[in-house]
Amino acid sequence: MTTVAAYAAPVAKAPLERTTIERRAVGEFDVLIDIKFAGICHSDIHQAREGWGEAIFPMVPGHEIAGVVSEVGPGVTRFKTGDRVGVGCMVDSCRECENCKAGLEQYCVNGATMTYNGIGRDGEPTHGGYSEKIVVDQNYVVRIPDGLSLDVAAPLLCAGITTYSPLRHWNAGPGKKVAVLGMGGLGHMAVKIAHALGAEVTVLSQSLRKKDDGLGLGADHYHATSDPRTFEDLRGTFDLIVSTVSAPLDFGAFLSLLKTDGALVNVGAPEEPVSLNLFSVIAGRKTLAGSSIGGIAETQEMLDFCAEHGIGAEIELIAASEINDAYERVLNSDVRYRFVIDSATI
After folding, report:
1. Could you read off the pLDDT of 289-298 as tens digits, one per residue?
2. Residues near 211 by Cβ (< 8 Å), separated by ≥ 6?
3. Which of 32, 147, 184, 338 has its CA 20 to 30 A from that of 281?
4. Which residues contact 104 (CB under 8 A, 6 or more apart)?
5. What are the start-end ranges of the H helices in the chain?
6. What whole-number distance in Å separates Cα of residue 136 and Cα of residue 230?
7. In the predicted model, what is the mean pLDDT of the chain?
């Protein structure tokens, strides 16, 4: 066991505070990672404040982890000391179900082990990336290509793969019209990746406040959803809409923007239930779908793709002492576009 410094929420809705946690000893197939940077995801706030249901406390959030290997177990073959690596939203799964064997560990039938707010195979709660070090089985660690700086790579481990996976699955590319709903931490990555895939990209945002940013990141068009004309002008336009927002939507209005056989895919998760008139999907054979992160192999594919295309997150680097302020700023949409903690300040 190793004692490391971390920032944790002691109870639900409480400010995070500096503390210490125990990391397990490095096992045969484990990798010990010195964390260099950790992204702040809206998911961290949802869970630390129990917005998605009962959670485990004290909680050390963080599932956008970039660092350097400092020790490996005797059975580790994939990594060596000094390697630049990342850890995303999960640190284990059953490895035996149909989904795990297909490289879809995020949909493990028996439940993947989440990087934090989960229970590991040893029966102990998992703690995430707002900490100095983490121990993870080599099979749930990915390599960060040399072409990516660790600070801008950290958010790719959630925001990057969460948007890359549906864009790939629904075949975003040349000849496809893709809309990104929401221009935040996930949305700005969706714009960059969809553009790099060759799609015609439109941002749908509440206002035009971030229009220059969106166009600069690769969007071809930018429209305000607060303007009713947007829904008149864009009716039947898109092959795919990726919704990154975590607030309830008028799904009927956004489904009307799809072509026949188009798909509206949700990667943002509102805390409240949503309602839907089924004629919104029946008329036009449309799909309302969801997507959750990506498997380990696809996450590696995404990192390699981003390195090849020079894609990193747009970040604001902060000290760990600023985490609570950063949470409030995320809730106020006051970040462009991802807070990243400098782990040296923990």
Report:
1. 999 999 999 9
2. 203, 205, 222
3. 184
4. 295
5. 42-48, 98-101, 150-153, 159-169, 185-197, 211-217, 228-233, 251-255, 279-282, 296-309, 323-331
6. 46
7. 97
Evaluated on CA atoms 78, 79, 85, 88, the torsion sign reads positive
Structure tokens at 113: 């082990």
Residue 343 CA: distances (Å) to CA of 73, 99, 320: 24, 34, 7
Please give the Cα distance from 118 to 125 (Å, whole number).
6
Q: Are the CB atoms for 229 and 204 separated by under 8 Å? A: no
What are the pLDDT digits (tens) for 59-111? 999 999 999 999 999 999 999 999 999 999 999 999 999 999 999 999 999 99
Cα–Cα distance measured from residue 239 to residue 231, given in angstroms and rounded to the nearest whole number: 15
The per-residue pLDDT for range 11-56, each reduced to its tens digit, is 999 999 999 999 999 999 999 999 999 999 999 999 999 999 999 9
Structure tokens at 227: 């303007």
- Is the CB of residue 245 less than 8 Å from the CB of residue 274? no
Model pLDDT for residues 111-120, shown as the tens digit of each residue: 999 999 999 9
Cβ(113)–Cβ(3) below 8 Å: no
What proportion of the chain, given as a percentage, has pLDDT over 70? 100
pLDDT for residue 121 is more than 90: no
Contact status, residue 32 vs residue 82, Cβ threshold 8 Å: no
Average pLDDT over residues 281-303: 97
Residues 286-300 as b/e (b if ≥16 CB within 10 A, e otherwise) read bebeebbbbbbebbb
Closest CA to 247 of 193, 192, 206: 206
DSSP secondary structure of 259-286: EEEEEEEE-S--SS-----THHHHTTT-
In eight-state DSSP terms, residue 9 is: B
Neighbours of 20 (CB within 10 A): 11
Q: Report d(CA 270, CA 293) in Å as an integer.
A: 16
Q: Rounded to whole angstroms, how far apart are CA atoms 71 and 80?
A: 7
The amino acid sitting at 69 is V
